[in-house]
Structures are given as C-alpha cells and as structure tokens.
C-alpha cells in the first residue's frame, strides 16, 4: 500500500503531472500525424518534385551568389598567386554547380527548372577560369624569374664600380615593382642611358661586360612578360565578371519560376491543414488545463525552495538575523529541508566566527608577504610553484608570466645554481643543506639567492638585492689593496733612494779624483746617468706612495681648467676635440695646482690614446656632496671590468705595445689621496671611459 508521505512528495506529484501531460501530447501528436499523413497522400503527386526543385534552386542560387561575390576580388587582385588561387576556387564551385544540375537517378529535369542556359553559362565560366589560372601561373613564374635575378644581383659580386652598381640596382628594383608598361619603359630608357656608355666603346677602367649585365636584362624581360600576362588576366577577369552577372540573372529567373510552381501546389493542401489546426487547438486546450494545475503546484514548491535558498545565502553572507523560512505545503522533501536548515544555521554561525579569525590572519600574512623588500618563492616537493611575491620575480630576472614556471625553469636566469640539486616531477633533487650564492646580472645588479629544503620536501627560494653592499665590499677591498701597494711603494722608494744616495755620493768622490782615462770617464758618466734615472724613479715612487712634497693652496678649479685649455688641445692632437662643462659658483679646494694640472694632462693623454680615430674629450667640473667633482670622459675603446679594477695599480697598463709604463693613473691616484679626495673609474668596452676626481671643499 502506498504511504501518504510518498503521495505528498515532489517525487510523486511532479512526475505524475509530467506523465499526464506527455500522454496528452502523445495523443495530440497521434491525431496530428494521422491528419498530416492524409495531407501527405494528397501531395504525393507533386510534393516530391516541388521540394526537389526548390532545394536545387536554393543550392544553385546560393553557390552562384558566392561565385558572383568572388568576381570583385578577382578584379581587384594584383597578385598572380591570388588570382590563380581564386580561379581554382571558382572552378571547384562551378564543378559543384554542374553536379547539382544533373538529374538524380537519370530522371528528367524537374518542372520549372530551366537549367540549359545555366549549364551553358557555367561551362563558359569554367573554361575562362581554367585559362585564367594558367595565365596567373605563367605571370607568377615571370615574377619568380625577376625575383631570382634580383637575388643573383644582391648575392653576386657583380660590377666593380660601387656607384654605378648602386644606380643600376635602384633602377631594376623600381622595374621589378612597376605596375605599368609605360613606367617600365621609362625605367628601361634610364637603364640603357646608364649602361650604353660603359659597353664596348668605354674606357677600360669603366667598361662593363655584357655578361655582367645579363641579370639586369632578365629582370626587364621577366617584368615585361609579367605585365603583359597581368593585362591579359584583368581582361579575362572582366569578361568573367560579365558572364557571372548573366548567370546570376538566369538563376534568379529560375528561382522565381520554381517558387511560383511550389506556391500553386501548396494552395491545394491548405484546406487539409486547416482541419488539422482545429484538432490541434482542441488538444492544446486540454494540455493547457493540465499545465495550469501543474504550474500552481510547481510555483508553490518553487516559493518554498526560493525561501530556503535565500535563507542559505543569507547564512553564507554572514548575516546573524536569519529566521527559519516558512512553508505551508505538505511536500515531504521541503519539510525535511526546513529541519536541515535549522541545523545548518547553527553550524554556519560557528564557521563564520572561525572564518573571520582566519581571514584576519591571512590578510596580515598576505600584506607582509607582498610588501617584503626581499623576494620569496615557495615550491612543492615536485618543484611546482605554490606562491611567490613580485619581488622575487624581479630579482631573478623574469616578468609576471613566470609565476607558473616549475622550479628548474624558474632558476634558468641563475646559472650559478646547479639544477640537479632542485626537485622536478620525476626527480627529488640532491638539495639537503641550505645553499647560498650570488648572481651578477648583465646590468651590474648583484642578487644573493638562498635555496633551502623544507621538512615536507618543498623548497623555499629567498632573494635580496645586495648590489650596494657588494659594491661597497669591492670598493673597500680595492682601496685596501691600493693602500697596501702605496705603502709598499713608499718603503721601496726610501730604500731605493738610500741606495741611490750612496751610489751618487761615492760617484762624486770618484769624479774628484784625477788620472782617469777616457774610457773610465765614459763609464763614470754612464753610472751618473743611471743614478739620475734611479733618483727620478724614486721620486715617481714617492708620488705614487702619496709621500711626495706638495704645496697646497686655495684653488678655484674652474679657472685652472680654463687656463689649461690651450696646453691640453696641443697635447691631445688634431684628431681629438676638447669640450668643457664647468659649473658656476664652485667652492675653492686646497690642492697643489701644479700636481692637479699634471693629473688632468695625464688623464687627457690617456683619453686621446683610447681614441686613435679621434673623438671628443669632455672635461666636466661640478659640485658634489663633499666638495668638487672633476671628470674626464672619452668615447674610446673602453676597458674591461678587470682592467678597471687594476687601473690605479702602479705599472699596470693596457698599452704595452705602445710603450706605456703604467704610472700615469697611479700618480693621479696618489695625488688625489694625498689631497684628501678620492678617484673613480667607470668604463664599458667599446663605449668609452669616465675618470672622476673628488676633492673636499
């Protein structure tokens, strides 16, 4: 026996209503099918013929419309390849139309389908388009011959006279792009006027052999044949367009005839269809009545479901004042849903409290993660990305699209990392301990990268920009190394000076003695000369060691530089040009003017030597944070980073073949350091060098 709750459930009521409606619809469909069968028997004599004619007429009309619409493209086409492609397409459409025109199963043509004129026009179009495709392929071949000749001219050594060859190349380039025989003839005339004087009657040094001009002749011949073919193509396209219009007109006439015949045939069936409509109307009223009853039941259920849905959404949004929805129906499912709603509301209240706490913590973590100056990226045990901030992408050297890259691909810009250490899909990686390394980019940015393994097998990649710290460490090491060299040079200079003093003292005593022959006097003179050179070397070493005697005074550097202009222009030679950028209102500095002028002269000579082909030497003088900055800039051959690092060291030079001894920059550095300042070098190979001297005010 069926229970009462089941009879009250949606599972019973809704399927019952749908089944009843289906029975009514099936009955209506049976009646309609019976009536249509009778109408079909009445139309059996002419229906098949009319519909077949209409289908073929529609097919022919649509395809002819496509054919006619393609004609303007052919008329406007200038590419032989496109003309050939469009022509082949037209031939395929015509073949399809001809197949559609043939009667099926050897039957006679249908009534109203006057196709003889259309077949004749289609055959004409097919013949003309096939000829047109052949002409287009011939034109394309001529165009290819011209292009091959142009390639031969571009790749071959050709004519020795560069100017004459350039003029001929310009003429044939224009000829290959000409679109009229008149323009091509004008270019041909220019070509003949250029080449005629250089043929057989020309002087031997300007004479050009006919074989050298053969590629140029082929270009004119191929372009002439190409333009003639294009004229023939355009004329053929025009004729084809005219035939296409006739075909379109014939097709429209045929469609109108078929439509008239079909209309006459359908009038006879209208009476039978009217009777069927009456039957369908009566059945529709029965279906409507049942549908109204079903809709009322469904609307009541729908209101209950909407009420429950609104209550669920309100709970999901976190609202606290949500009451239990009301439902007056007896459907079993909705009654149980109301009971489940009450339990769900209590659970949502607990979950909402926990979610608010979790969201607050997540916002704090997310804000900290995104605003970190250091980059961080997390990967799972298979090397797949979990999350990363924008900073780590910038420091590694990627754009935003790198967020989905696996770990081994993500560290590609860091060649210092052994990729075998990192995990992948099928490889756990060899990384066990924390790995820290430094990466120097092409633009000089230094990044410290740390890769470590997590307890769950994942990997954490940390990156931070240490460019400033690395630069400071390098500068400190460089200054420490140079200061050590300077102290050693100072000690050596004292020892050398002492030994030279003993030698010169003893030499003076010998020179007071008499009785030496000429040979002995020459030996004494050579010893004196060597001793003087040793004394000069000791003085230079004192200068390098920042121990030379200086005579500082308050100096306005801008005025000193302006006064050196004439001397510097003579020193750098005629190939180089001197330029000044001296700021106004510069503070005075306490330096030795003579040593400063000697330093600037050394820097200008080095700059001129770095520009053997000539260039501009720019001397710039401006305020700096601590005093005055003087820089000498050239656009010469530049120096490698290794050479820049050793440039201030004594006896280091990049011009061994030219006789350089490597003391110029070392003396400049010693003078600047002894004056309380500092010296810097910035250089890029092939782009020049900047030497900057900083003096305290």
Automatic annotation (TrEMBL):
Gene3D superfamilies: 1.10.287.130, 6.10.340.10, Histidine kinase-like ATPase, C-terminal domain, PAS domain. One of its GO terms (molecular function) is phosphorelay sensor kinase activity. GO terms for cellular component: membrane. PROSITE patterns: HAMP, HIS_KIN. Its EC number is 2.7.13.3. It comes from the Bacteria. It catalyses: ATP + protein L-histidine = ADP + protein N-phospho-L-histidine. CDD domains: HisKA. Keywords: Kinase, Membrane, Phosphoprotein, Transferase, Transmembrane, Transmembrane helix. The chain crosses the membrane at residues 12-36, 272-293. It is found in: Membrane. This is histidine kinase. It comes from Rhizobium anhuiense. The lineage of its organism: Bacteria, Pseudomonadati, Pseudomonadota, Alphaproteobacteria, Hyphomicrobiales.
């Amino acid at each position: 026996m069926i229970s009462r709750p089941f009879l009250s459930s949606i599972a019973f009521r809704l399927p019952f209503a749908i089944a009843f409606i289906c029975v009514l619809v099936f009955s209506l469909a049976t009646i309609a099918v019976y009536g249509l069968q009778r109408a079909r028997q009445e139309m059996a004599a002419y229906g098949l013929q009319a519909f077949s004619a209409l289908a073929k007429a529609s097919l022919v009309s649509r395809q002819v419309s496509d054919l006619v619409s393609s004609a303007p493209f052919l008329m406007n086409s200038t590419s032989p390849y496109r003309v050939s492609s469009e022509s082949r397409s037209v031939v395929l459409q015509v073949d399809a139309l001809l197949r559609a025109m043939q009667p099926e199963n050897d039957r006679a043509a249908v009534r109203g389908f006057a196709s003889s004129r259309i077949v004749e026009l289609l055959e004409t179009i097919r013949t003309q388009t096939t000829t047109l495709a052949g002409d287009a392929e011939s034109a394309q071949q001529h165009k290819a011959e011209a292009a091959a000749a142009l390639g031969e001219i571009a790749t071959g050594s050709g004519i020795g006279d560069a100017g004459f060859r350039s003029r001929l190349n310009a003429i044939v380039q224009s000829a290959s792009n000409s679109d009229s025989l008149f323009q091509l003839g004008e270019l041909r005339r220019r070509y003949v006027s250029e080449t005629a004087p250089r043929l057989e009657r020309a002087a031997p040094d300007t004479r050009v052999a006919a074989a050298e001009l053969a590629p140029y002749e082929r270009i004119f011949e191929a372009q002439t044949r190409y333009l003639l073919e294009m004229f023939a193509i355009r004329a053929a396209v025009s004729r084809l367009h005219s035939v296409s219009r006739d075909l379109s007109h014939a097709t429209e006439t045929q469609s109108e005839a078929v439509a008239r015949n079909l209309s006459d045939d359908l009038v006879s069936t209208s009476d039978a269809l009217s009777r069927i409509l009456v039957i369908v109307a009566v059945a529709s009223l029965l279906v409507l009545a049942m549908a109204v009853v079903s809709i009322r039941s469904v609307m009541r259920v729908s209101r209950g479901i909407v009420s429950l849905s609104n209550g669920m959404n309100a709970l999901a949004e976190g609202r606290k004042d949500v009451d239990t929805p009301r439902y007056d129906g007896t459907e079993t499912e909705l009654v149980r849903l109301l009971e489940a709603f009450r339990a769900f509301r209590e659970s949502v209240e607990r979950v909402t409290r926990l979610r608010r706490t979790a969201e607050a913590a997540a916002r704090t973590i997310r804000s900290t993660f995104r605003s970190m100056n250091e980059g961080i990226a997390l990967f799972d045990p298979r090397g797949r990305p979990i999350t990363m901030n924008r900073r780590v992408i910038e420091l590694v050297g990627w754009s935003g699209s790198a967020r989905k890259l696996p770990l081994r691909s993500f560290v590609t810009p860091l060649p210092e990392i052994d990729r075998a250490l990192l995990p992948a899909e099928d490889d756990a990686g060899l990384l066990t301990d924390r790995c820290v390394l430094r990466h120097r980019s092409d633009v000089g940015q230094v990044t410290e990268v740390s890769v470590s393994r997590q307890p769950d097998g994942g990997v954490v990649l940390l990156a931070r920009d240490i460019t400033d710290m690395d630069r400071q460490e390098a500068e400190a090491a460089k200054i420490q190394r140079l200061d050590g060299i300077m102290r050693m040079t100072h000690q050596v200079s004292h020892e050398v000076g002492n030994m030279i003093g003993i030698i010169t003292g003893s030499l003076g005593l010998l020179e007071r003695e008499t009785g030496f022959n000429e040979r002995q006097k020459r030996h004494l003179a050579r010893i004196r000369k060597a001793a003087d050179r040793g004394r000069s070397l000791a003085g230079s070493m004192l200068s390098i060691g920042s121990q030379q005697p200086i005579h500082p005074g308050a100096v306005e550097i801008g005025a000193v530089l302006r006064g050196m202009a004439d001397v510097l222009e003579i020193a750098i030679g005629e190939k180089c040009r001197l330029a000044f950028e001296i700021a106004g209102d510069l503070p005075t500095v306490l330096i030795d003017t003579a040593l400063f002028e000697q330093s600037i002269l050394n820097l200008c000579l080095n700059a001129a030597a770095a520009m053997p082909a000539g260039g501009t030497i720019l001397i710039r003088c401006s305020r700096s944070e601590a005093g005055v900055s003087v820089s000498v800039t050239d656009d010469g051959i530049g120096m490698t980073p290794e050479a820049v690092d050793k440039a201030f060291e004594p006896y280091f030079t990049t011009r061994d073949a030219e006789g350089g001894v490597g003391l110029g920059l070392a003396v400049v550095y010693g003078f600047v350091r002894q004056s309380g300042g500092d010296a810097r070098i910035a250089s890029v190979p092939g782009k020049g060098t900047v030497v900057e001297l900083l003096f305290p005010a």
